[in-house]
Amino acid sequence: MNKTMTILLCSIDGVKDFVNMVSRIEGDVTISSGRYIIDAKSIMGIFSLDLSKMVTLEIEEWKNEYMEILKPYVAE
Predict the structure, then answer these.
(1) DSSP state letters, 5-50
(2) Measured distance CA(23)–CA(70) in Å, rounded
(3) Which member of 16, 19, 55, 56 lies 3.0 to 4.6 Å from 33 by CB, making a disulfide possible if both were Cys?
């Protein structure tokens, strides 16, 4: 089951922590911003996006325990 949510990555350290956390998730995890879609496990890919705006995170094989990992990044 796919899960999509809006997240905000607003600092360099935040992006580093996010990539470390997302690397624990099994399966494909992507971030989209406008027409760009990148691998959420790629720090270089994330830095190629405009991080002043919220981005959309999509997890292909959602498990409820992933919410605890992602909670600090979810835009409210």
Answers:
(1) EEE---SHHHHHHHHHHHTTS-S-EEEEETTEEEETT-HHHHHTS-
(2) 12
(3) 55
Place of tokens 């835009």: 75
Lookup result for tokens 């624990």: 24
Task: Identify the residue whose tokens are 């959602």.
Answer: 62
- Cα separation, 38 vs 44, in Å, equals 10
pLDDT band, very low/low/confident/very high, at 75 (cuts 50, 70, 90)? confident
What would the pLDDT profile of 20-35 be if each residue is shown by its tens digit? 999 999 999 999 999 9
